[in-house]
Structures are given as C-alpha cells and as structure tokens.
Design goal:
The chain is of the alpha+beta class. The protein has one domain (3-97). 38% of the residues lie in helices and 11% in strands. The chain has a four-stranded antiparallel β-sheet, with helices on one face. Helix 1 (45-59) packs antiparallel against helix 2 (68-80). The termini are far apart.
Length: 127
C-alpha cells in the first residue's frame, strides 16, 4: 500500500483512485475532490486521505468479515466521509465494474480477425 500525497494531489498505486485540491474562485476554495465521489462534494485534506486509504482497504480485501476491528475501522473511515461503508463499497464497485468490463472481455490480439483473415462464408458486420 503506497499512497503519495503532495500539496495538490493524493494518489494510490493500489486503488486507481485519486484526490485533488480544487482552487477555483468559489466559496469552498481549497477543498478536495475524491475521484469516486460526486465532483460537487468538497472534502478536507484529511477526509481525502481517509478516502484513499479506505479505497485501498476495500480493493485489497482488507475488510474481513471475521475481523470485527477491520470492519469497524472501515466504518469509521466511511463515517468521516459522511457515508456508510456499504455506500463506499458500492461507489467503488460501480467504478470497478466499468473498468473490468472493458478489459475482461477484450480479445487477445492474436484472436482478432481482420477483413483479410475472415473465413469464406462468414458474414461480417461493420459497427
């Protein structure tokens, strides 16, 4: 688990999530946005860091059903974001599902058939 935090950006090499500081001229100037939360939400730097740590815990499967302490720590982190642990897990699952669908079903390059290699009698549809 390696989290990199700078003055403007917090990233994780495990959970492909990030938080960044928003410095727009608005009432919530200097707030932080977490990649898996709605963009209109503004967080403190501490909340953003907790959000990245929680994403790593969830995606590394560190919340074990048998370990009450792990679940309680996850629930405390989620509460700091104003969410439940289930809500955070759902938001991360929605993002992960999209990424998994794109890569999981992508054919290997060797499996692709170009127009030159399509067998005779095969109907080809252009999409």
């Amino acid at each position: 688990m390696a989290i990199t935090a700078t003055e403007w950006l917090i990233t994780s090499d495990v959970a492909l999530e990030a938080a960044f500081r928003v410095d727009l001229p608005e009432p919530r100037r200097g707030g932080w946005v977490l990649s898996y939360l709605p963009t209109e939400w503004r967080l403190t730097r501490e909340q953003a860091l907790v959000g990245i740590v929680l994403a790593e815990m969830i995606l590394q499967d560190q919340l074990h059903l048998t370990g009450e302490l792990d679940i309680e720590v996850g629930e405390l982190h989620a509460a700091q974001l104003g969410l439940t642990l289930t809500e955070v897990m759902s938001l991360l699952a929605l993002r992960a599902t999209y990424d998994c669908d794109r890569t999981q079903w992508a054919p290997e390059k060797s499996d692709l058939k170009t127009a030159n290699t399509v067998e005779e009698g095969t109907t080809v549809f252009a999409v």
